[in-house]
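---------- Forwarded message ----------

FYI, see the Disease resistance protein CC-NBS-LRR class family record below. Original note from H. follows.
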Amino acid sequence: MNDLEPKVLDGKFGKTREFAALDLSGDNYLSWVLDAKIHLRANGLGQTIVDENDASPEENAKAMIFLRRHIHKALKSEYVVVDEPLVLWKALGEKYDHQKTVTLPRARYEWTHLRFQDDKSVSEYNSAMHRITSLMRLCGENISEEDMLEKTLSTFHASNVLLQQQYRHSGFKKYSELVSCLLLAEQNNELLLKNHQSRPTGSAPLPEINAASQEVNATSSRGSIHKRGRGGKRGHWQGSRKDHGARSRV
């Protein structure tokens, strides 16, 4: 199994890996710090990684087991002599805290160029929005609900300006509310498009007109056959009379 993949062995603390291990490159350091803090606090060990704490030796040992279980095996070897969770925590911070200086400018750039009109679907845009804002928040930059709403509404395509105004007048307070409406509108449009493609406008004739047309055609056909039959008989009879008269004269 990959050393970075979460894996569950049993339900006891210290026997599981609840989230991905800290990569040797430090690329996932910011999210790793957040995950580690949350899980340590959930298990009553949050004080073990803060200065001047009064954690017991047993608590420090549990926190140390947890942290070592969630770092790359090369980092375990690098810090093999460290036996205090606070010391290990600070050492990892000194090693990887520079990730903020790399991640934040990139996230800001992506935020600046994020546009609703550029994505193929609402889901794609929503995924990009959450990825970018999460990175910015991990770096300490706050992105509010108002920021996310304005970013979305202000980047509609010019051809959808009326729709944009309708959504603005709806008075959404949360980004998630706007996304729910956009997803519903997208699904309705896809359904209408599928219906149109399966039966384009005018492809199915009106049943009343079609039935009447068939009745008229059938009546006309019977009339033509009847007339031709009588005409044929009449022609044959006249011809016979003429021939009979000719033979009498002879």
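H. also flagged this: The longest helix spans residues 207-249.
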